[in-house]
Amino acid sequence: MIKAAFVVCLFLLVNCSFGQNKVLFFITDAAARDTLSNVSIVAKGTDPGTVSDNRGRAVIMLPDGKSTITFSSVGYKTLELTITFPLVNKDSVLHIEMEKEEKELEQVVVSSSRTESRIENLPTKVEVLGFEEVNEEVGIKPGNIASLLGDIAGIQTQQTSAATGNTELRVQGLPGKYTQLLRDGMPLFGGYAGSFSILQIPPLDLKQIEIIKGASSTLYGGGAIAGMINLVSKRPKEGKPERTFLFNQSSLGETNLNLYFSERKKKTGYTLFGGGNLQHSKDINKDGFSDVARTDGFFFHPTAFFYPDTKNLISIGFNSVMENRKGGDMLVLQDKADAVHRFFVKNVTRRNTIDANWENKINKTDRFVFKATGSWLNRDITTSTFGMKAKQLSYFSEASWLKKKPHNDLVTGINLSGENFAKKYPDSTKIPDEKNTTIGLFLQDDWRLAKKMTLQSGIRYDHHNRYGHFLLPRLSLLYKISPTLTTRLGGGLGYKTPTLFSSETDERDYPLLLPFNGVKAERSGGINWDINYHGQINDWELTINQTFYYTTIKDPVIYRTDINSLIHFYNASRPITTHGFESYIQATFNALEVYLGYTYTVAEKKYDPVHRYLSLSARNKFASVLAYEFSDNFRAGIEAAFTGKQYLDDGSRTPAYLFMAAMLRYDIGKLAFVLNCENIFDYRQTRKESILLPPVNNPRFKQLWAPLDGRVANLSVRLTL
Asked: Among 17, 275, 346, 374, which is 20 to 30 Å from 300 by CA?
């Protein structure tokens, strides 16, 4: 009897299996054509469904007749598909393409790649500080982005002037002039603006910051020898108006008051960013001279957006920045100058910028983009010994086209950029008026050679009206060793046209600058290799990255001073080289976040056998961050950075030092309170040495290699409506 029952059951099972259909789904992103993992697949009437694996594949069994299958994934539009079984082939493979939701697409697009690909699928390594990181920095340092960028491995922020606080950004050991700074893909500052750039950019209206280290001139032109930083602005969202007010006060006498509004209604939208910053002058070490300059600034940045149809976006913006910055002898700053106490440096800058952008979605995958900007800068310099007034017009326009094909993504375009510098007379300098114009053509093609391999090839041709022709090829290869392990290898050429206005020159020395005579543009070559792990071990989500880099700069522009104290610029006979590696680990476990990073850099001046190493490039730098979210309302974090010994121009080495900071954030309804403390141990260069060189009435200062401002606490309050 038992045997008969077993035979009947076996017959029923076999009979049932003949009514089942095995289906293999292969799921990809409709635009980027990347495979999608963790897509939920559920057929109505079946339980419990399945998810796609790391290769975008999933297998399910479906009965004869009609079946409705639902595909869903975070950030993608839910897709329903009805299929009638049996199909022609019993075992079938169906390709499913899923489209991203527009609101999510805005968060994950890497603008600097121009191909709208996910970071992990780009042959060029791009680091992105996303909305959460930028949003947190708004409360910590609302005045500018210097602190935010300085926390990244391989980037060092360095104050260059004791009097005015000018700060430059050093990437992979190279001076700031070799890094290109962009806003929404268009160049910022340059030339006569000097090194005030990152000090005049508040983060409140930024969505994300994209960073490419190493040669990246193919898409963005000359100047990106050490790397490129692209600041991506927020855009208004349909049905999600934003009203943000922010107030910040620091123990150093800095006050910030900013506001940001945005809204979109059907075919129109706007963003409005404005505010003011006030910093009182401070003499931290009581030597009679300011360690922090007196600064007051105002900015106003409205942008209008137009959406004539679903395929087009047009934006027009205006940005006005006004800043007064003055440092020097404290008695002069207090209007108590006399014959001895009379040293000061004052910079008054007025910048007005107009920009326009048109994006046309030709179809689901292809894009045409036209953008243009014009910036009018007036900078008045006044010192105790010299004064200069000049203006500069900077302009940029570009048209680019993206074509996505089954096996490759093609980007091509043309751009025109330039700077017109003109002095206001009377003037005592030898600096000439200049007009620089560059026209460039670029082409980039990302080839998916195989499922695991993508080759990015690119080339740029630039013609500069004064420095001639530049041909800049680039190659990058991405290989996915496994679903969690990838490696990239890339390199390319770059160039940098010389400028008289660098962080190396004191404003009081401008009358001593001689025009360029036979000076050539600097040319570079660089290579980067990294291997990256991103996966989950138990409940820890881990990212481990190891990067190696090498850059050489041929014909570096340097200067010498003759017996009459005049400053001559010329090309060195041997190059500047920098090489090293970066290592970092990011880990999250529930509400805990951990970051550990180490950078090793050797930057050398091959043309100087006596003082071989490039000054102010730390050989060793460690960074760590520990953050914990105790609840939805309360978050705390602590970070530490160890900067190793640095060489100075005279060949001496500085002490190594430790910098620590801590932050507490508490949210109450629509209010967010942030209490932050920087430089907890109050480490200052002036604790180790006097930076002041006599005479008092016209002093010089030693090279700056550590903070001057000491321990600083600030409290910010943000109201979001």
From this structure: 346
- Runs of H (alpha helix) within 153-223: 217-220
Contact 477, 454 (CB under 8 A): yes
Q: Which residue has the tokens 């500047």?
A: 576
Among residues 558, 559, 479, 478, the alpha carbon closest in space to that of 522 is found at 558
Is the Cβ–Cβ distance between 34 and 121 less than 8 Å?
Answer: yes
Exposed, middle or buried, 342 (CB in 10 Å: 0-12/13-18/19+)?
A: middle
- Which residue's entry shows tokens 């032109």? 221
Q: Which residue has the tokens 């090489």?
A: 579
The secondary element (H helix, E strand) that includes residue 369 is: strand 367-383
CA-to-CA distance for 489 and 268, rounded, in angstroms? Answer: 43
The pair phi, psi for residue 494, each rounded to 5°, is -155, 180
Compute CA distances 18 → 15, 43, 58, 90, whole Å. 5, 19, 21, 10
Name, in order, each residue with C-beta under 8 angstroms of 496's C-beta and a sequence gap of 6 or more.
177, 178, 222, 223, 225, 521, 522, 524, 553
Token couple for 183: 């806003």
How many CB atoms sit inside 10 A of residue 481's CB?
A: 12
- Residue 2 backbone dihedrals phi, psi, to 5 degrees: -65, -40
CA angle 118, 121, 127 (to 5 degrees): 65
Tell me how far apart the alpha carbons of residues 522 and 500 are, in angstroms, rounded to a whole number. Answer: 14
Tell me the pLDDT tens digit for each residue of 484-519.
999 999 999 999 999 888 777 888 999 999 999 999
Residues 665-699 have pLDDT tens digits of 999 999 999 999 999 999 999 999 999 999 999 99
- Identify which of 131, 59, 73, 121 has the alpha carbon closest to the alpha carbon of residue 101: 73
Return d(Cα 58, Cα 25) in angstroms, integer.
5
Instruction: Please name which of 550, 712, 594 lies closest in space to residue 146, comparing C-alpha atoms.
Output: 712
Contact 683, 706 (CB under 8 A): yes
**CA neighbor of 367 nearest in space, from 409, 430, 319:** 409
The SS3 call for residue 564 is coil
Each as own residue / partner, the long-range contacts of residues 567-573 (CB below 8 Å, 24 or more positions apart, any chain) are 567/505, 567/509, 567/512, 567/513, 567/514, 568/514, 568/517, 569/498, 569/500, 569/514, 569/516, 569/519, 570/518, 570/519, 571/519, 571/520, 571/522, 572/605, 572/607, 573/607
Burial of 607 (0-12, 13-18, 19+ CB in 10 A): middle
Burial class (CB in 10 A: 0-12, 13-18, 19+), 336: exposed
CB 83 within 8 A of CB 69: yes
The residue among 141, 195, 200 whose CA lies nearest residue 170 is 195
**pTM of the full structure:** 0.83
SS (H, E, C) 231-261: EEECCCCECCCEEEEEEEEECCCEEEEEEEE
Rounded to 5 degrees, φ, ψ at 416 are -130, 125
The arithmetic mean of pLDDT across residues 177-186, rounded, is: 89
CB 623 within 8 A of CB 610: no
Q: Phi first, then psi: what are they for 714, rounded to 5°?
A: -145, 150
Determine phi and psi for 70, rounding to 5 degrees: -110, 130
CA distance 111 to 114: 5
Phi-psi region of 689 (alpha: psi -120 to 50; beta: other; left: phi over 0): beta
| Residue positions counted in the chain | 721
